[in-house]
Amino acid sequence: RADMLIQRADFAEAAGRRVKGYSGGMLRQLNLMIALIGDPEIVFLDEPTVGMDARARRRTWEYIGSLKEQGKTVILTTHYIEEAQALSDRVGIIDYGELIALGTPAALMAQHEAEDLETVFLRLTGRRIAEGS
User: Fold this and answer.
1) What H or E segment, with its residue span, contains residue 103?
2) pTM score, two decimals?
3) 84 and 51 in one domain?
4) What is the β-pairing status of strands 73-77 and 42-46?
5) Are residues 130 and 68 in the same domain?
6) What range defines the domain where residue 111 resides?
7) Which of 66, 101, 125, 133 could be joined to 93 by an S-S link, Cβ 3.0–4.6 Å?
8) Structural domain tally of the chain?
């Protein structure tokens, strides 16, 4: 299983190096592999793509999609609204610790007459999105 995860993350070259030399994005990928090593049915991911380059981020999105296809439940937190829109079957918007919206991306966008979830967020909170914070 570890070899499969290393290959899937395109991590073979880095796997032989000390973790101490990993970038922030590489550490995020390593954390994801550790979370998945036991093949859990429910996966909790906190800001899984923060600090990743575009290629690693895309691979991570694809892998999260494959987990969903396998029937796994993936719960993730993110400040990247496009990530939530692309990956989520249901989205909860939390503002100052309070759940202020919950639904499918399509339902939330329809309810708030918005083209994307970022617009929904802005309409509900009245604030700009602080990416990666």
Assistant:
1) strand 98-103
2) 0.75
3) no
4) parallel
5) no
6) 78-133
7) 101
8) 2
